[in-house]
Amino acid sequence: MDLERQRRKEEIQKAFLTQLVCNLLDEGNAAFREGDFRQATYHYSEGVSVARYAQAEALVIPPELLESLYVNRAAAYHNSGEYEKGVQDCDSALAVCEGSRRALYRKALCLRDLGRLREAYECGTSCLLTDPHDRQVSELAQELAAKLGLKIRKAYVSPQNGPAGSNLSLLSRNPLAATHEFRQACPACYSRIGNAAESNALPHRCKRDVLLCRLKNSDDPTWKRVRPRPARNNFLGAFVLCKEVQERQECKYGENCTFAYCQEEIDVWTQERKGALSRELLFDPLGSTERRALSVTRLLQLHMGMFMFLCEECYDSKPRIISKRSKENLAVCSNLTARHPFDDNKCLVHVVRSANVRYSKVRPLHPLCQFDVCRHEVRYGCQREDSCSFAHSVIELKCWVLQQDTGITHEEIVQESKRHWHSGSGRNRGLNLKMKFVCGQCWRDGLVSEPDKALKYCTAKARHSWTKERRVLLVKSFEKKKWVVVRPLPFSRSYPQQYDMCVHVMKQKKCHYIGNCSFAHSLEERDVWTYMKNNNLRDMQQMYDMWLTLTNQNHRPDGTLVTPPPEEKQIVMPTDYAEPMSGYHCRLCGKHSNSERQWQQHISSEKHKDRVFSCEGEDEGLAWRHRFPGPRFTLCPRLEGSCPEGASCDYAHSEEELAEWQERRDFLRRKLAKARDDMLIAPNDYDFGKYNFLLQD
Asked: Where is coiled-coil annotated (predicted)?
């Protein structure tokens, strides 16, 4: 028999057997409706036997048909009082179709009549999760809960079935609306007087991160600040007022006090603990107007942060591990011990960095999603985790709504977030700040001294040398009246995604980090660093020059330049700082000596040599336009591709860089020879540290 005839024969057998199973199922259903449960069981059993025969002959029977046979036979067994057989058929149906609502419901009925109430309750609740609106399943679950002595609750059904329903969720309904008034503010628009808050009418860009509340029809018209509820999940008692506040004293615990500062705080905290009130949804109930304006950019403007992909396996582990896509191998995550396939395990996460880093997972939208925030997650954390049908954060709820309305995917959300992040600060927009360079030594002494016209010394009486390392950049916003120091950009091979505020500065007003802290110590410093990152600026002088250009302040009123012209460069050697008349004085180091021996020791010191060859003490000197020279004065052989060593490569990366290296090396050698002839450098001194390969033959 050829293959074509064999295929036709198999199709005939499959169609015949499938039709036979359907006929037996219909006969069983007819007998069941007539109340003849034994005859119905017989027809269902015949259908199961035919289906098993077809499977033995490698013929596929639709799983939905086989599930119906098992579930209907379980119903016939239940009505006949054969509950054990009914449970077995329900298990068979669940093996064919996992999570079948009909099989779970029939199994719960059989287990209930067998007296196995706990197992029946678990099946009923599992069935209720698949369809929360099923009245029969809900009644069965409440009946079993009553028999088990559990607390009976009404089914928590969202008031909306998708976008067509009501746009208000349960948590956005204010239970204190009849007795309390609410408004939003920020630390810049109110001033604290005891425990009261008064509105400040100064124009500003309000962040709306502070909740204010007051009682209606009260004699006290002031707005009270409501602090975040203390994160103590094991506390079940009533909230009470702080004793220090009751005695009109300042609480020594401040923001960390777990007692309330006012009655309004007690009322709000109580409702939040019950899960009946959410601050984020209080002023943003996702109404029709808000939904029409909802977009990824709008979400990031309201909630800050950004969207990114993380490894879901690492994120859901205990303890949580934050791992992105590996830079060395893009197919796996950055977790060195696990190395999960990233594309198969990635999940969308919303990241917000403030005083700490907060991650909010955004699960994919599916038909069973309920458009409301999980009340358990709001109170003490949802135990069902990813299997919960309700949103676990406001940002996840809004992402679901955005996906439902626009059909946007998670990949598109991440791409929109990246575009918003790169254009958020504005690459071509200027900073709303004033800037100036001042002498760092005078600034530490409490003085503000700018450079002279020649840009050589500061204008103070001490006449400190005006060098790149001795000056500091001060900025002042138009909203404030205080100059703030901006440190140089933290050294790194690549820019971070964003610059964050230092936690120690925010809490203790002072950073105790010994090294160079890479976190911003002021809002102005963070804005300047972000602007430099967006405009690819590495040096503070470049930042200052750009600001001068944007504000048209390149010249002083007398016509002199604010910054020296780039072509006026000179090489500085120790001879330029030597003053043999009436002793020896080094302008670079500020050291004066009347003894020749001490002077020789000074010019031979590592500190003096390093300052000389790094050109401290002059405006330009040896300020390289390119990298510091390496020992290899040739072009990099890997220049055509991408050199993996980057800035640490010993070879030059361009013709201009190589020419500058050679020019500076030859010039320094001539200067060094002249200095030795003048006996201003010890004749037997050949140790110049990192400059040895430049100065020695």
From this structure: 651-678
The helix-helix angle for 101-114 and 117-130 (nearest 10°) equals 160
Higher pLDDT, 447 or 642: 447
Q: Which amino acid is at 600?
A: Q
Which among 30, 72, 31 has a CA at the least distance from the CA of 48?
A: 72
Rg of the chain taking only CA atoms, in angstroms: 38
Q: What does DSSP assign to residue 333?
A: B
Helix axes 394-406, 296-303, angle to 10 degrees: 170
Strand partners, 223: 197
The total of other beta-carbon atoms located within 10 Å of residue 491's CB is 8
Q: CA of 64: how far to CAs of 12, 17, 61, 84, in Å?
A: 20, 15, 9, 23
What is the model's pLDDT at position 312? 92
168, two tokens: 């208000």
The tokens for 607 are 């500190």
Q: Are 350 and 413 in contact (CB under 8 A)?
A: no
Residue type, 311: C
Q: Tell me the three state secondary structure of residue 175.
A: coil
Q: What is the dihedral of CA 202, 204, 207, 210, to 10 degrees?
A: -10
Residue 333 to residue 323: CA distance in whole angstroms: 6
Q: Is the pLDDT of residue 608 over 80?
A: no
At 398, the pLDDT band (50, 70, 90 cuts) reads confident
> Which residue in the block uniquely carries the two structure tokens 């199961």?
48
The model carries a pTM of: 0.39
Q: How far is the C-alpha of 476 from the C-alpha of 486, rounded, in Å? A: 10
